[in-house]
Amino acid sequence: MVLSLDMKTAFISVVLGHLFTVILISAYRYGHKKDRLINTFYVSKWLEVIGWGLVIFRGSIPDYISLGLVNSILFVGIAVETIALSMVQHAYNRQVKRRYIAFTLFSIIGFNLLVFLNSTEDARIAFASFCTGMLLVYPVYRMITGSYTSKLKRLMGYLYVIVVIGLFGRALLTLFTDQSMGFFTPSMYQALSFLSLYLIMILENTGFILLYKEQADERLIRMATYDDLTATLNRRTFIEQAEGILTQLSRSKSAVSFILFDIDYYKTINDTYGHIAGDRVLAGMSALIQEKLKDVGLVGRFGGDEFAVLLPGMNEEESDAAAEELRKSVEDLQIPSIPVHVTISIGIVTLNKCFEPCVNKLYKWSDNALYEAKHRGRNCAVRIRFTEEQQGVIEYV
């Protein structure tokens, strides 16, 4: 039994699907016209609307338009859409851009040469299918193998793998079997081809919007979690994460150290060189601190030039060494174009075995030690050590 479709009606449904996406994006773009990512996807949808729309008039317009021009538009549309898929994964750069431009030009020139040389429909179908599949390979590969691939990206990646395999399979079947793979030739493959085209449209449109939403959510979470200037945890997030870690350490009777530090004479730096220079000092110092404590401790900005560090599992000796390394590293730090000598004062507290998982108490104790460090001349670390009666005795590290 041969299932025959009215392909003009079928293509109208595809065009309408892309057109409704364009309309919805147009409404969203009204307040987001500078969003490069959404604009890229928006352009790709318009190109697909135009390309598939022209297919509807096949037979009523010259072949060089219905074949050469239409497929050229679709190649560009697919290329722009795959660029958008790469951008939403933060996997788009100048090198990728050059490769896409080169391969898109290859696809357009190659297909139009086949049209000009009056090649068979099978050759054109095979070439177009192969080129379309190749355009999808890079973003699909990144979806599946990326370092921070979400479940959504991975699922979309596997669905796109099916699409790519189907396109390559269509190219091979066209070349090595007698079956026609054309959209306008009634056959079982015609129905499968259209069904695949329709499902791909849903995957492209819905999938991209979900990826864009996921990216926006990640951006909002980052804004709510990290300090913009220093890229350290903000105070609220630091306390939440620190108290979770403290609870675990208390149950396992492990040691924990807490460091509080600020920049010496930071107000003088701002008053002398300006707040922009002060911000550069903060950014440079926090970047250094985070590099030194990478995978070791939790770093957060508590406000102004004051920072806190939680060092899980570190006893007094280990935290003293960590604090001294931080102090010396900052002392050696040079901020480009700002002739200032940056130093920090540090307060440290260490708790052993069972303790109450309360960040506010650790902050209060280390703040007392930090105040003593200021009193003793700055650019030093002071520890508050507890006696059995929990009386604070301030000592140098």
CATH topology assignment of the largest domain: Rhopdopsin 7-helix transmembrane proteins
According to DSSP, the number of beta strands is 6
The sequence of SSEs as H and E is HHHHHHHHEHHEEHEHEE
Query: How is the largest sheet built, in terms of strand order?
Result: 2-3-1-4-5-6
How would you state the average pLDDT, rounded?
Answer: 87
Shape: elongated
Strand content: 5-15%
Task: Report the CATH architecture of the largest domain.
Answer: Up-down Bundle
Assigned CATH class of the largest domain:
Mainly Alpha
Q: How helical, in percent, are the residues?
A: 55-70%
Main beta-sheet strand count, sense and barrel state: 6 strands, mixed
Radius of gyration: 31 Å
End-to-end gap: 87 Å
Could you list the spans in which at least 5 consecutive residues all have pLDDT below 50?
none
Structural category is alpha+beta
- Whole-number count of domains: 2
Helix segment tally? 12
Protein name: GGDEF domain-containing protein
InterPro entries: Diguanylate_Cyclase, GGDEF_dom, Nucleotide_cyclase, Rev_trsase/Diguanyl_cyclase
Keywords: Membrane, Transmembrane, Transmembrane helix
Domain GGDEF: 254-386
